[in-house]
From TrEMBL:
Belongs to the UPF0337 (CsbD) family. It comes from Actinoallomurus liliacearum. Residues 18-70 form the CsbD-like domain. This is CsbD-like domain-containing protein. Residues 25-35, 63-77 have a biased composition (Basic and acidic residues). Pfam families: CsbD (PF05532). Residues 25-77 are annotated as: Disordered.
Amino acid sequence: MTSPYSFVRKGEPMGLLDKLKNKMEKAKGRGKEAAGRGAGDPYLESEGRRDRMKGGAKQVGEQAKDAVKEARRTFKR
């Protein structure tokens, strides 16, 4: 069975896919938050805020990993 990520080259991080997923999670959260605000549903609004914050936190983690990889690449020479 082949991986759904088989198009990613060997040795290359799957960071692009992770970043895309995080951005989609943030967008989903924004949508839920707006829908909750429009419907007057505080539970849906807070759920959207939670999704948005979770996606943002994951995005920060991806940026930190990228910074570490870049630092390793810089000092490896």
